[in-house]
Amino acid sequence: MTAMRAFNFSAGPAVMPDAVLAEAAAEMLDWHGSGMGVMEMSHRGKEFGAIHEQALADLRELLAVPKNFKVLFMQGGGLAENAIVPLNLSQGQTADFVVTGSWSQKSLGEARKYCNATEAANTQGNGHTTLVDPAQWRLSNQPAYVHICSNETINGVEYHTLPDLKALGCDAPLVIDFSSHVASRPVDWSRVGLAFGGAQKNLGPAGLTLVVVRDDLLDRALPVCPSAFNYRTVADNDSMFNTPPTYSIYIAGLVFKWLKAQGGIAAVEARNIAKADLLYHAIDNSGLYLNRVAKDCRSRMNVPFYLRNESLNDAFLSGARERGLLQLKGHKSVGGMRASIYNAMPLEGVQALVRYMRDFETQHG
Ligand SMILES: Cc1ncc(COP(=O)(O)O)c(C=O)c1O
Prior knowledge:
- With about 375 residues, this protein is of the alpha/beta class.
- It has nine helices and 14 strands.
- Pyridoxal-5'-phosphate binds near residues 77 and 103.
């Protein structure tokens, strides 16, 4: 399988570990002698029950989720959570949003339908290339929650330390959209009330949404909140109030097993640091490539970069494709290039990219 596979730098849906795809392929027709593929199983049967339970247990262990948090497997992705979170947590009151890129901007816009969503900071003025010191945030008096996007997938800006709201004198729960760096590094749960993320970057296939929510936040939903999106209802039904995305959960479970075999999140984080350092070093030491994000908040997962001579963009992308380096085009809202280097991207993939970037620069320099 490996010989045919290119290095895929897509921002999501994204590269999966070869071992996971191979295992899923081997089990496609008959899961563990059950005579059924996972896609064909009832979500209420004992076979899927075992898959679900193991996936949950492995995820809790990997992310060191404390006992007073529920792990929910939901649907709708990050964009649905932009509505589901205020429906569950805002109580129609005020919620504060720290806008550091496209995704937190979208979260703020959607929340305005359900509550008084206010902007505590916005880095648009510098093109979303920095974070704002939490001490500078304009927090409301007793907001229902404070929302951040802990890794901005498009702009390539990541919080390397989560803000400590308590230290700012704010008792509100911190909500983090960790869609694009979940499981790439440990989470300091003492600073978090709720975390959500779509699976399609670091956890598995699209269709599964992970929500990790502190117990005391389960009973705040607005009466209009749809039952299937009510965290209390979902939690009380072990994520089976409606039919869950069974196949996506199964694949995510294989990814969790793979992450454990890699040595767990700390080991994976060390590899992610090495990959990101290699790529940023190549960008910063070139005359052709440029990354505009401040060094203290550069994303380890999503590395946007520009060619100083933008007329070379198409040549860069087609040359990359010829070398088996795929999906490097930047998001249409910001242009340029973006290399997403999630957990499943091997170091060899980043090395191959850096080699290509050097060769291309020599050829066109
Ligand atoms: C940080 C972040 N939040 C939210 C989303 C939206 O996710 P979805 O398309 O699954 O709704 C994305 C998608 O790329 C994202 O990167």
